[in-house]
Structures are given as structure tokens and as C-alpha cells.
Amino acid sequence: MQYVSTRGLPGQSTRSFCDILLEGLAPDGGLYVPLAYPRVDGPTLSRWRALLEEQGYAALAHAVLTPYVDDIPSEDLLAMCRRAYTAEKFGDPQIVPVSRLSDGLWLGHLSNGPSAAFKDMAMQLLGELFEYQLQRTGRELNILGATSGDTGSSAEYAMLGKRGIRVFMMTPKGRMTPFQQAQMFTIDDPAIVNLAVDGVFDDCQDLVKAVSSDLEFKARRSIGAVNSINWARVVAQVVYYVACWLRVSAAVSSEDPDAQRVSFSVPTGNFGDILAGHVARTMGVPIGDLILATNENDVLDEFFRTGVYRVRGAVETYATSSPSMDISKASNFERFVFDLLGRDGARVAELFGTRLTTQGAFDLSADPAFAGARSTYGFCSGRSTHGDRVATIAAVHAADQVTIDPHTADAVTVARAKLACGEVEAPVVAMETALPVKFAATIQEALGRDPECPPRFAGLERLPRHVIDIDNDADKVKIFLDERLG
């Protein structure tokens, strides 16, 4: 499998998976994508079903990832999958179980990993891949990341103790919940450095891109990425769409489960999670609709309704009760637009490199390709508010004695609205984002009590904090890295 940049011209040079594994942005500012997506058919899906049932999630991950990771020996990749996906880490031998609510909506349980967020599903494998490649090449890696709440803790838990890896994670100061802050800031290890930026997540993300765009500095300081601009994270997430589809399709169709279409409702801020669903669907997994659910920061909902992608500034990026989606610049969206526009790299470069920089928006409403977002790729979208989240958390708990977090509530809210109006058909899986313990204030408002705290997190918020304030300035970030790295 070879990879190209979303901003590259036809005939551009290609790179292998291991070539791009430790990188974020391509040198031209684009994102790496496969030259072509591998295709799966009915017999392949049947084999995957048997693998999941007989050998478990790690074996399925190995099978799904193999076409994308063909420059790592198969036995090594399988060993990494087995180390990443264990019942001890994820609290369930199924790794990604599914359950059905009383109204027929399904939940895909993605948040039982070390940091109680769905990002563990990719990050645990990424830690294994990074360590493997660094040992193989004799290199070290300094990860520079940005988080709106969950990526940071997932990355830090996954990379902690990995040889040759340091993590510098930027957070929007005061924009995460107390629990999310505690998960990150209580880590006491010299290889984990938390940086609080006076701004919103988009500012942190822009700093990562600005530092990564300085190619001399990036090479000299061995800067890598764990945000979803890293392709390895996206492709690792494809696996849980396949697993959820296999489990739900078997549960609802005894006659021909391999032909059963299943839709997914995905709470979305940076477009990485739902992009993995897009990749799985494009590969040929029988996914029906991809329902994109936003909170009040509805840049992506606006695009899928109108064709206009309009980036918001910090003043217009609201602090909400589903804070991991308080994002107005969706990095992974470029990968989807690349597919939507027939993989026209020059046009993507103009839209994301020039148009957004100078105008802050672009409009595809009159472009014939825009209709393909729904007709070809199955996307529809909806918006959820704080009131919706609170009401949905309360309703799900009352009906099923299940407590969901606010982001998952966004997905459930939008999925139920789409089912009610007939825009999508059952079955629909709402993709869980995190455990409720991360969002105690909203759970308290919805249910009148605090969420259950898993024993491994008891007393976490009382531990000493380790975090450094830093200016919202890429040059100052580079100076800090130079000083810290010596």
C-alpha cells in the first residue's frame, strides 16, 4: 500500500505506511491517504466474522489492517495487535461490545480502555507501532499534540513508558472538565509534558500544524503527531466499525448477515472518528448511513446541510457540555473532501490552503460533487444542544438504566431524530465517545447524582498537577521545545 498527500498533483511520489507512520502533515501541508482503498467482498466479510468470533478483536484488527500495513511483517503486526487489545486493558474480552436500547437503537461501547475514551481504540495500537518502528530504525520521537479533552489522556497513557518517545500535549486552558484535566495533569513522568494554551482547541491544533510546517525544525527535533492527522490513528479506528457491523448485522439478520446494512451515528468534532466509518464504507463494508452529530459548534453540520464550510474563530467557538467537540476547524475533513472531489489534489490545496487562509470559508453548494456527500458516501447530519444532551441522558437512563456521556447523547439525539423522520433506517449504532465519569457536572444535572467512578480512577482529581502555561505563539512553542530537549 502506498500513500499520497491530499494536496498532491497526479504523479506525485508515493510513500509506504512506515514512511508516514511517525509523521503528521505531508510536506505540502496536506494529509496522507492511501493511493486507493482496498476492497472487501462477501467471502472476506465471512472470514472476518469467523475471525472475530473464534479468535477475537486482535485477530480482526490484524486482518483489517494488513492491506494498509504491508511493510511490517505480518507476524509482527499480529503481535502488536494482541498486545494492544487485551481484556485487561479494555475490561471486556470482546474489546468493543454492542448493546441494544429498548427503542431499538444500538450502542457501540468504545470507551472501556485505560483513559475511558474511544481514542484508546487507536492510541493503544499507535503506541505499539511507534515503539516498534523507532526500535527498528534506531530513532527517537517527540510527539507534539493538541487535545480538546480525550486525545491527550489517551495518547499519554498509550505512550507512557514507551522507549524513545516523549509527549508534549497542548490543551485549551480551562476548556476541559476537571476529570479530563486530572487524567492528564496528574501524570508525573519527565517524558510527558502538558502545556496549557490560552485559547481554544483550534488554537492548539493550529500550533501543532505551524510547528510541523517548519520542515527544518520538524526534522531536527524529530517531531511526530498522534492527533487524527496521523493516518495510523484513522485506520486503527476502521477496525471497530467493522467489529460493530459484524456484531449488529449478525444480531438483526439470521438469513444473510453479510448483506445487512447498518448505519452509524457519530459525535463529531475533528472528523477523525466518522472518517474511519467513511473508509470502512468505501472499502465495501455494508454501512448504510453515516450520521454526523455535532454540538453547538456546528461547522460540519452546516457543511452537510448547505455545502458551505465556514471556519469559526475563537469567539464563535462555544464552550459546551460536550467539550471534546468544541472544535471549529476539523482537520480530517480534508481527507473526505479529497474523496468527494474525485481526489483532485490541486483543488483541495486551493480550498484548504488558499481559500480558508484568505477567506475562512469555501462553498461547494453549486458543485455537482456536493450531492455525492449524501448519495455516494451516505452522509447526513444534525445538531444537538445542551438541553438535548441533558434530556437524552435522562431519557436513556429512565428507559434502560444506562448512563451515557454528553457526546454519546449528541449521537443518540441526532440518530433518533433521523429515524423518526424516516431519513435513515434501522439498525443504527450510536458510537460511544467516553465514560460518563469524565463529565460529572452534566450527569449531575441530568440525573441528580454523580456518575459512577471506575475504581481505577478513585481519588484521581486530588493528586498533584503537572502542567506548564505557554503562549499561543508557534515560535515560543519551538523555543520551549528547544530548551526542553537540549
Provide an overview of this structure:
The protein is an alpha/beta fold and 486 residues long. The protein has a domain of 230 residues: Rossmann fold, CATH 3.40.50. The chain contains 20 helices and 15 strands. The chain has a six-stranded mixed β-sheet, with helices on both faces. The longest helix has 22 residues. It is globular and about 60 Å long.
Topology:
Layout: E1 3-5, H1 17-21, E2 32-34, H2 42-55, H3 57-65, H4 74-84, H5 87-90, E3 98-100, E4 106-108, H6 120-137, E5 141-146, H7 151-159, E6 165-172, H8 178-185, E7 192-197, H9 201-213, H10 215-220, E8 223-224, H11 231-252, E9 262-267, H12 272-283, E10 287-294, H13 299-306, E11 308-310, H14 333-340, H15 345-359, E12 361-363, H16 372-375, E13 379-383, H17 386-400, H18 406-420, E14 428-431, H19 440-447, E15 468-470, H20 474-485
Parallel strand pairs: 4-14, 5-6, 5-8, 6-7, 7-15, 9-10, 9-14, 10-13
Antiparallel strand pairs: 1-2, 3-4, 11-12
Helix pairs in contact: 2-3, 3-4, 3-11, 4-6, 6-7, 6-11, 9-20, 11-12, 17-18, 17-19
